[in-house]
Amino acid sequence: MLAIVIIILAGIITYSLRFGGLLVGDMLSKHKFVENLIKALPGTLLLSFIVPSIVSEGIPGAISALVAGVVAKKTNNVLVALIIGMAIIIMFRNLL
Amino acid sequence: MKSNFIKGFSATIPIAISVAAYGLVLGVLAYSKGVTFFELLLMDVVTFAGSAQFLMVELWKDPLPITEMLFAVFAINLRYLLIGASLTPLFKKSSLFEKAALMHLVADENWAVTLSRLKKEKISPYFLFGGGICLVIFWLISTLAGHTFGFIISDPYSVALDFVIIIIFTALIASFYDGKDSVLPWFVAAIFAYLSFLFIPGKWYIVIGGLSGAIVYSIEKHFREDKSE
Fold it and tell me: pTM higher than 0.80, yes or no?
């Protein structure tokens, strides 16, 4: 039951942001500081999320993440990056 | 109006295929975390946001950490404020009702397709909506298929299922890389995230690291622009 409530609340939050952005539109672009803050958030949040897992995985984790990141940036293809990154980590876990 | 819908739908198909690939992964992960089929379905339709759904599934455990989850969803989806704001020109002639009805299915992918098309030709908001319908169809099929066939993966550790999310996030992070302006903020975010991970219980390290990095980015931009004037 709590799960359903959380999912619906998450939906309401997300929808409010989508619709709210359209409504406040021009106001937002006047505040450069806030605009930059919002622009930087997705990258820094996702990064914060992965840091502890990469540290606990050690060198193999760092290598696989770094390679996947570079591949994603160069090819613009998440799937290719995923396959290469996973190949590295699976190799380390099963062969070494 | 109708042709705009179809044009948007078909223009979004190529990107929807790659979205389906990580939809499949999300489905498998959701299955292994104990998210039910119905909960995943509801999430797909009600939240309809890839990175936020990955975060929610990743944080999924008993008891559900409601505050951390909702805060993380809010923070990661804050960018929709900007995405919404950037769509103001497209909705210039729309009524409030039309705006409210069509905005729900806005994701990064159909937004990007729509804005790049808007530069070349005159299109209506139904182009964006057509793209959204296309995405939600691919999203539902792929995530639910992943969930249904998730049981096939019997040893999640050796196929490194726990690391899939890390790699996907790394790839997404790379797409947000903004040249050397990102270096210092990302460094600060990583340090703060790890320190909070060590010393603060719960999942707050995500929000703390994310916010501190973003603040550094804003400050950095502020001083750069001052200098260039």
Answer: no
